[in-house]
Amino acid sequence: MDRVLVLNGPNLGRLGVREPEIYGSATLADLREAVVRWGAALGLDVEARQTDDEAQLLAWLHEAVDARAHVVLNPAAFTHYSYAVRDAAAQVTTSGLLLVEVHLSNPAAREAFRSHSVVGAVATGTVAGFGFDSYRLALEAVGARLKSDEARP
Ligand code: DQA
Question: Is 114 touching ligand 1 by the criterion CB < 6 Å?
Fold first, then answer.
């Protein structure tokens, strides 16, 4: 079964209490449960993690490369300024694995500093603005891409 690490960056552990008008009232535990369930329905072995620590996020991205796991990544605020997260994300995609950048909100419709992602250019693709469904759509995209790769002679 293909593995997918769903990695969440800083402040996403505060889902449910953090700006619910933007991020909704569901919690990180709810998100974890949903992504594992959606992954299982797609035949994907999904594990969800969250950290506020940039070094931890880098270590998990390195782990994904070494373990041949695809990645769904919400880099949160690191999206906008962390070249270290960008360089680690690039190692995932250049090693032939998929990395989908996701956002709950649509950063392009918010403050100007959120309109640029330093990660986007090295991601396989990006899904933003659909709340938890951004993760569902990302997992569906991973599942579809892996299926079409399998079908290739
Ligand atoms: C976010 C958007 C980022 O701009 C912000 O810093 C976050 C969450 C989102 O999921 O909408 O923490 O990545």
Answer: yes
